[in-house]
Every structure is written in structure tokens, then in C-alpha cells.
Design brief:
single chain; 83 residues; mainly alpha; 77% helix; elongated; membrane
């Protein structure tokens, strides 16, 4: 059986990380209104799914973008609190 077949649920790691990373970036912009919890939640989930997707080797571009935007969603509130 081939790893990463088209009907595998692992093919959704890339799109899910991309959507969650975008949501994390949007909530970072509205952190004053929405709070930082949503940004941390969406960002950490985006990073998790992106790393799982990169490990499987599926949808690497979407996983890379999800990793970048998700890490922005996690690091911005952490650095804001640290400052």
C-alpha cells in the first residue's frame, strides 16, 4: 500500500494548517479585540498540522505557508507579553 494515497486523511494536513495559520494571522491583527487566546490556539494547531504534513511529505507548499503563518500567530503574543 502506498504511503499518502489520495484517499488518506493525511492529505488534509496541508489545507488545514493553511486555514488555521491564516486564522491565526487574522486574530493577531485583532488581538486587542479578540484576545490572544485564539491566536495561540489557531497558531499552535497550524504548526502541529504543518509539521505532521511535512513529515508525511504531502502538500509541502501549503504546509510551509501554514507553518510560517501559524508560528507568527504563536510568537507574536508570546513576544508581546515578554516585552
Amino acid at each position: 500500500m502506498a504511503t499518502g494515497s489520495a484517499d488518506s486523511p493525511a492529505t488534509l494536513y496541508g489545507p488545514v494548517s493553511l486555514v488555521l495559520g491564516t486564522a491565526a494571522s487574522v486574530t493577531v491583527v485583532f488581538a486587542g479585540v479578540l484576545g490572544m487566546a485564539f491566536s495561540l490556539l489557531f497558531g499552535s494547531l497550524a504548526v502541529t498540522f504543518a509539521l505532521l504534513g511535512l513529515g508525511r511529505g504531502l502538500n509541502r507548499v501549503q504546509c510551509g505557508i501554514g507553518l510560517a503563518t501559524g508560528s507568527l500567530g504563536v510568537l507574536y503574543p508570546v513576544l508581546l507579553v515578554a516585552a
